[in-house]
């Protein structure tokens, strides 16, 4: 049996908010981003459909979307082949996000009202509660809400649009890192440090903490990418 099909199956999570084809696309993308399917591996639609017990239509949809993103490519007379993501790609993605987050957070800190800071603090306190009670799925959403709040308060819609283009890559990376208890405890503490720096409107500290926060995430992800490779 093709071992990669079993990995895609394990990464497949059905959701009431998404269609089957979207959930399958997420599973393929997560598997490829974490290099659990190596570059050069052929994806046979028929084989995946039979072993996953689904039609070829959602598989075809997933591969079309992944082709648009450059994660797979169609090679004549061979079929769909994984291009994947390299360690250099991961570094680039996190470097871009570091610059965007620093700008958004610094701008938000200057513009936020006392009520805004109160609401951000409530988000952080709720995140601590979710962590203590081990509600990881809700904590993942809380992390997303925290980031969205800051970008919204930066009042820079074009910056937010640019950040959204990286969101799908980062969501899968974050899903892996935050499911590690040690990493999410540290990430929450870094969010509190960022909140404190924002309260003081300390741009240097904001930049430093943002850099440290994303460097920690990147280091964890690189380790996971190395560990999850097969063969």
Explain the overall architecture:
- The structure is a single chain.
- The chain is mainly alpha-helical.
- The chain has helices at residues 3-11, 20-33, 45-52, 56-68, 87-111, 114-132, 136-153, 157-178, 181-199, 203-228; strands at residues 42-43, 72-75, 79-82.
- Strands 1-3-2 form a 3-stranded antiparallel beta sheet.
- α7 (136-153) packs antiparallel against α8.
- The longest helix is centred in the last third of the chain and has 26 residues, at 203-228.
**How would you describe the oligomerization state of the chains in this entry?**
single chain
Radius of gyration (Å):
19 Å
Secondary-structure element pattern, one letter each: HHEHHEEHHHHHH
The number of distinct β-strands equals: 3
Q: How is the largest sheet built, in terms of strand order?
A: 1-3-2
List low-pLDDT spans: none
Q: What is the molecular shape?
A: elongated
Query: Counting H and I runs of at least 4 residues, what is the number of helices?
Result: 10
N- and C-termini, Cα separation: 15 Å
Mean pLDDT over the residues: 89
What would you call the structural class?
Answer: mainly alpha
Tell me about the largest β-sheet.
Answer: 3 strands, antiparallel
């Amino acid at each position: 049996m093709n071992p990669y099909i079993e990995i895609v199956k394990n990464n497949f999570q059905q959701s009431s908010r998404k269609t089957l084809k979207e959930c399958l696309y997420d599973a393929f993308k997560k598997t490829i981003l974490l290099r659990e399917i190596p570059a050069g591996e052929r994806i046979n639609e028929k084989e995946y459909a039979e072993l996953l017990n689904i039609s070829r239509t959602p598989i075809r949809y997933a591969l079309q979307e992944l082709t648009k993103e450059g994660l797979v490519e169609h090679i004549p007379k061979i079929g769909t082949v994984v291009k994947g993501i390299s360690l250099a790609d991961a570094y680039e993605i996190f470097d871009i996000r570091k610059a965007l987050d620093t700008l958004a957070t610094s701008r938000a800190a200057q513009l936020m009202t006392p009520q805004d800071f109160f609401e951000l603090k409530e988000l952080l306190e709720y995140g601590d509660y979710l962590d203590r009670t081990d509600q990881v799925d809700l904590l993942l959403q809380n992390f997303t809400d925290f980031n969205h709040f800051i970008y919204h308060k930066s009042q820079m819609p074009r910056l937010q649009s640019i950040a959204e283009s990286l969101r799908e890559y980062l969501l899968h990376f974050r899903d892996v890192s935050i499911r590690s208890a040690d990493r999410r405890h540290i990430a929450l503490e870094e969010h509190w440090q960022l909140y404190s720096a924002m309260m003081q409107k300390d741009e240097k500290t904001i930049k430093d903490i943002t850099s440290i926060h994303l460097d920690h995430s990147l280091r964890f992800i690189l380790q996971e990418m190395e560990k999850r490779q097969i063969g």
